[in-house]
Design brief:
It holds the Pfam family YjeF_N. This protein has 495 residues and is α/β, with parallel strands linked by helices. It is 40% helix and 15% strand. The strands form 2 sheets. It has an 11-stranded mixed sheet, with helices on both faces. A 7-stranded parallel sheet has the order 4-3-2-5-6-7-8, sandwiched between helices. 52% of the residues are buried. The chain binds ligand NAX, adenosine-5'-diphosphate (ADP) and potassium ion.
Length: 495
């Protein structure tokens, strides 16, 4: 199956992620719109049972129910599977008589025994349903819940989680004692914790089930967080048309360092493959022969003194610039980055150019006044931004503070805009953990920025294209392979 094509039929509304608070609001608004809590829970449990029936043949199932509504969903699942003829047992943390409202009503429909939760109940189960706690867990798992899940994870019996694996925090993906599920069924929309690590790895396959929540609820909630997907930016992706010439596709300029010359070259190839009409690397004169002998369509422009480089920036030829890959952490890099930012033209500050601000992070904030993207990995981020809080919160706070789009890289890259919007990326394979892939990423984003795409869209599209290119290649990936994989990714996106 062609994943890119089938994925792109999603709409951006379907990519929205809801916080735990927003999901509770969605439930309240659904009830106000006439869909009862009882019905929502019935639909939730039935959706879990349906997914189980799609994934497995009938076998002894053990449903572990908790004291809240997640447990209520578990009782519905148990009931539906039993009605379908599956052998089902239920074990519960606490008493079913302490359940409230719709959870209590649904539990009352379970006529079978309810065993007390303990590791012993796992005996004989060939499928385990984790309905202990949902995305809004308030404290770490302990006692019977912790011990029973831990014992379950030591065996080979598959675990299906309702909403989230119990112990995964829906807003942050942090784990307070969760164990890995093979399948997680959540409702209406994913939560950030389904995509942020370690949550994403603990969830296994994630299915989002419709439980009857009216679509209008999403407009009222106005989510600010999304899962990265072409539906968010494909319409704004620059495309050449019959009246396009190379100049109208933008001119990207990259600061080329010395002696680390490979990084800027890879970034340049990323920018050119992303569609930049012209791509130039500006290099200190001593490095000119090295760059010039290995580049063809990418131009190399030598400069003699830092002042010469400054003059280059004052011309109107360039539509976006990048500094950082192989630039060196020194006063010159600091100065060149400030000079780029002073123009107000689209600028990417990456790698060494981020670290160059470590003694004076405030200078970065003061200098940013045009479209700007910062692309730190975790260590670079910590050198200039506040390290506290989960990845989504930290990235948002950094973007708000400095006024740039911040791309905090990793397996769960977060892209945040100063206005509070944020996107979490989940398509990047671990083969990207190899030297130089970050340089290609900043180059791809540069190529899009140079063509006039907005900073936020360029960053989101760049991160996704980078992940898709790596996935296209598979094992054995080198950073320099990435630019040449982009044409195949574009072809599929546009087909
Ligand atoms: N109408 C709704 O609100 C719907 C809710 N749904 C389900 O409801 C779930 C959310 O329900 P709740 O808000 O009741 O949350 P939970 O089912 O996660 O239960 C929270 C309860 O557990 C207690 N608790 C939290 N951490 C604990 C710990 N470590 N040890 C022991 N007790 C702990 C809390 O004090 C609270 O009483 C969702 O995950 C989803 O499965 C679905 O039924 C769809 C509709
Ligand atoms: N385990 C991983 N899974 C997915 N993507 C990863 C993983 N590790 C790194 N990446 C991605 O690879 C790139 C590495 O960039 P960076 O750390 O700047 O490396 P370099 O400086 O060598 O270019 C980033 O885009 C990052 O998100
Ligand atoms: K759960």
């Amino acid at each position: 199956m062609n994943m890119l094509i089938s994925e792109s039929v999603l709409t951006n509304r379907q990519c929205a992620l809801l916080t735990v608070g927003q999901m509770a609001e969605a439930d309240r608004r659904s009830v106000a719109a006439g869909v009862s809590s009882f019905e929502l829970m019935a639909n939730a449990g039935a959706a879990v049972a349906h997914e189980i029936e799609c994934h497995w043949t009938p076998r002894p199932v053990l449903v572990l129910c908790g004291p809240g509504n997640n447990g209520g969903d578990g009782f519905v699942t148990a009931h539906v599977l039993a009605e379908a003829g599956w052998p089902v047992r239920v074990a519960m943390l606490g008493s079913r008589f302490s359940l409230k409202d719709e959870a209590r009503q649904h539990a009352q429909r379970w006529v079978g025994e309810v065993e007390a939760l303990s590791p012993e109940v796992l005996e004989g189960a060939e499928l385990i349903v984790d309905a202990l706690f949902g995305a809004g867990l308030s404290r770490p798992l302990q006692d019977q819940a912790l011990e029973t899940l831990a014992a379950a994870s030591h065996g080979t019996v598959p675990i299906v989680a309702i909403d989230t694996p119990s112990g995964v925090m829906g807003d942050s993906g942090e784990s307070l004692g969760a164990v890995p599920a093979v399948l997680t069924v959540t409702f209406f929309r994913k939560k950030p914790g389904h995509l942020l690590l370690p949550g994403r790895d603990l969830c296994g396959e994630v299915i989002v089930a419709d439980i009857g929540t009216p679509k209008a609820v999403l407009d009222a909630i106005a989510p600010q967080t999304y899962e990265n997907h072409p539906a968010l930016w494909l319409a704004n992706l620059p495309r050449a048309t019959s009246d396009t010439d190379k100049h109208s596709r933008g001119h990207a300029l990259i600061f080329g360092g010395y002696p680390m010359t490979g990084a800027a070259r890879m970034a340049a190839r990323g920018a050119a493959r992303a569609g930049s009409g012209l791509t130039t690397i500006a290099v200190p004169e001593i490095a000119f022969p090295i760059y010039a002998t290995v580049l063809d369509s990418i131009m190399v422009r030598p400069w003699l003194t830092p002042e010469d480089f400054g003059h280059l920036l004052n011309g109107s030829r360039f539509s976006a610039w990048l500094i950082g890959p192989g630039a060196g952490v020194d006063k010159e890099t600091f100065g060149h980055a400030l000079a780029m930012l002073a123009t107000g033209r689209p600028t990417i500050i990456d790698a060494d150019a981020i670290t160059a601000f470590q003694d004076e992070p405030g200078a970065l904030d003061r200098a940013i006044h045009g479209p700007c993207v910062l692309t730190p990995h975790e260590s670079e981020f910590r050198r200039v931004f506040d390290p506290f809080g989960d990845k989504l919160t930290r990235t948002r706070a950094a973007a708000r503070r400095c006024g740039a789009v911040v791309v905090l890289k990793g397996s769960d890259t977060v892209i945040a805009a100063p206005d509070g919007r944020a996107i979490i990326n989940a398509n990047a394979p671990p083969t990207l953990a190899t030297a130089g892939t970050g340089d290609v990423l900043s180059g791809i984003i540069l190529g899009l920025l140079a063509q006039g795409m907005s900073a936020f869209d360029s960053a989101a599209a760049g991160v996704w294209l980078h992940g898709a290119a790596a996935a296209e290649f598979g094992p054995g990936l080198l950073a320099e392979d990435l630019p040449d994989l982009l044409p195949a990714v574009f072809r599929r996106l546009y087909s």
